[in-house]
Design a protein that fits this description.
Chain A is of the alpha/beta class and about 375 residues long. Chain A has twelve helices and 13 strands. Chains A, B: GO terms for molecular function: L-serine ammonia-lyase activity; pyridoxal phosphate binding; threonine deaminase activity.
């Protein structure tokens, strides 16, 4: 399998084990002659997301690393008169949508015979990587910021991964992981060309669960933007196979306190610039330096959607509204409810449009934090 | 729909709103002429457990209260040479298998036009009841022991349920709820005749996911024993429709520190007696007075299985073994790994038998407790 630089177009072999191009940009996967997904290519006998295995090539598919992840519920709601479908990806095996990406990423690591990896994460991705490496028998070192809560660390450590706590910011953690990667494979989900292909299965599921139609709009939390990239990959495949006629509008959602993609989108820039980052309750999407920012902005613009930003107060209000309807999610995930609230009141989607939103992570990951937010909610 | 006393056989109408028989025993549901499940009755177009909706009668099925729960992954493992299938029911919407029972129970409450309910729970059932009542628009009061951790309470409260903290033991909480039930409907999942019918869908899924065959043995954590009852209901249906030829052996698993069912089973008694209860890490199945103890013992004996008990040390060792394979579960759920360990080493199931085990609750519900167990594990 070949990798292609997303910026300069240079091609390298996957077994070179390079995690980024010499020019500094991330790689994309080149799937060569594999036809795009259509309804005839669905393997209905397979568990979960692997029903779309035809679009997730592996050298030894029978040895894929899987917990049966995916094929999560899609639940219909009315939101101020708007038809909203919630995709319950927090009900994945490790409690977040990241499992889709990790199942494919770690399966490819096993295909390559890799025995030891390094990942950096502030939470969900580290837990997911640790679980899939445990199943694959791959040694896993997860770098986390030293401020990461014990509750999040205990899940990673339970799976048997080695935790490396790094002082400083989330970005300092990434730099420490990159440095360690001089002696072991850096399997960063953000740099990986495979991760977004695993993620794209959520969008195939939307399409199938909606009776083989695309929604008109999709609401996606965006930090590094893997959901946006996965969404674009899936609907591009379905468009090119003739299964759908138009791409859904992608709304990428960021916290106001860390919104590099939103700023670049608003200013018409092709890549995100430096931003001042302050604390936010949407910690899972608080990414000041999105690795694939250019690709994410391109995907949003091509879809006719937008990048929107929300205050912590709006996100918290969204959390409470979701919980009162029976959805207990991470505060990060609640940004989709803030978006549903704004779009349903101010327009932005049509009255008869079908809107889908991904609930990305379980509230059980942040019970302590949620408790303190009830005690002192964010101010306006 | 009629209810029938599980002990004296008295029949009452469901709309009497009685939650137990005048003789003091719990009711069973009388489904009358509804034929048992077979593969032709599966509704493959329905989400999750509702593919078995033909065996979950409702007056207004289109108004069922559902988050698309069920159809959870089944993952194959080898355990000391034993073929073990793990059913990932912790990946239900509220983080536990209870969602199956609550989806059906709360759907029936809505059918009956009930607007306010009382439940008592030490954790998972309360959270699940609160979520489904939120979706159904039913006011919900959940009674919990005052020692219940804040982490568990925050999930229940987030869904908008009213929490009532009761001093004393788990059994004192039940008595407080029963007293409050003089003025509102007591929807206790343990007393409900519907709950186990929702639970039975996990066993239908086992059958379908194993290629329409029954496993040889099933490992089930048992406090009140709803999994045992649901398992028996499902496989009895499949036996009477001719889909399977023998019932799987049911192994009901209890912590040594609270094992009324195990003691009665060992001593050949028809109902559990009083037991001394001490603290256990398997708090989800620490039930000193199982409401349906007689039915549970009957089901286990009829299947040719057994009730087994395990020390906290064995359960904790099971937790670690599961986690190292990528499954992060509540310590309660880890009792199935303790059982797999014992049965695979000492026999008890055949070398070529197919064994299935339910992983009932998410480890994310007990991160704090798991952290302290790593620091000071239970002693032998």
């Amino acid at each position: 399998m070949m990798l292609q630089c997303s910026l300069c177009g240079a091609a390298v072999r996957e077994d070179s084990l390079l995690w980024r191009c010499g020019c500094g940009a991330p790689f994309k996967a080149d799937f060569g002659g594999i036809p795009p997904m259509n309804r005839k290519r669905i393997r209905s006998g397979e568990q979960g997301m692997w029903r779309y295995g035809a679009s997730l090539p592996l050298e030894r598919p029978e040895e894929k690393v899987s917990f049966g992840e995916g094929w999560t519920p899609l639940v219909r709601e009315e939101w101020n008169g708007m038809k909203l479908f919630l995709k319950l990806d927090f009900a994945c095996p490790t409690g977040s949508y990241k499992d889709r990406g990790m199942a494919y990423l770690v399966s490819r690591l096993r295909d390559q015979g890799i025995h030891e990896v390094i990942e950096d994460s502030s939470g969900n991705a580290g837990a997911s990587m640790a679980a899939y490496c445990a199943r694959a028998g791959i040694r896993c070192r997860v770098f986390v910021p030293s401020y990461t809560s014990e509750g999040k660390c205990v899940q990673v450590a339970s799976y048997g991964a080695e935790l490396e706590r790094v002082p400083g910011t989330r970005e300092d953690t990434t730099r420490a992981a990159e440095k360690a990667a001089e002696t072991a494979f850096y399997a960063s989900h953000n740099w990986s060309p495979w991760f977004a292909h695993g993620i794209k299965t959520f969008a195939f599921e939307l399409w199938e669960q909606l009776g083989f139609t695309a929604p008109d709009a999709v609401l996606l939390p965006a930090g590094q933007g893997s959901l946006v990239l996965g969404c674009a990959l899936a609907f591009e495949e379905l468009l090119s196979s003739g299964e759908i006629e138009t791409l859904p509008k992608i709304f990428a959602l960021q916290p106001k306190n860390c919104a590099p993609l939103e700023e670049a989108f608003r200013e018409g820039k092709p890549i995100p610039g430096k931003v001042r980052k302050t604390e936010t309750i949407a910690e899972g999407i608080s990414s000041a330096e999105p690795v694939r920012g250019r690709e994410v902005l391109e995907a949003v613009r091509k879809s006719g959607g937008a990048v929107l930003s929300f205050s912590d107060r709006e996100i918290w209000d969204g959390f409470v509204k979701l919980a009162r309807r029976g959805y207990f999610v991470e505060p990060t995930s609640a940004i989709v409810a803030a978006a549903a609230e704004r779009l349903s009141r101010d327009g932005g989607v049509g009255r008869r449009d079908t809107v889908a939103a991904v609930l990305t992570g379980s509230g059980l990951k942040g019970s302590g934090k949620i408790l303190s937010l009830f005690a002192s909610p964010p101010e306006d």
